Amino acid sequence: MKNDITYESVRQSLFPPMLFWVFFVTLLFMSGIHQGLIVLAYEHDWPSFLQVNIPLIYWAFVAIFLTVYTRWQIRKTYEEPMRTLADATRQVAAGDFSVYVPTIHTQEKYDYLDMMIRDFNKMVEELGSIETLKTDYSAYASKI
Known about the structure:
The protein is mostly helical. About 75% of the residues lie in helices and about 0% in strands.
């Protein structure tokens, strides 16, 4: 196991590559369905308001789906870990040095957020050690 991970060796982006492929394949598939709707409307001689509005409604649903999916990805990969880190920071500010925030990914897949969490945990550990030394010193000095 490699413990000396540097910022240069971590993933450079929080944007999951899979998200690109989901968008690409979905839009490719959806554009084919759009073409099918246009051909269907033309062949069956639908009224002109349907020929215009059905594809618009269809693309509105596609846009809603992609927006909700993107929002879910952002929340899962960025907002929830940042909220956890913010809560832990408040606990440390209140004097609780037993706080530990788990990283999101395994060491092989660390990104900058994982590195920030790792550094935060190390900082809290060091602060806890300093607090212990301070308490021990105060107890020792009061006995003298």
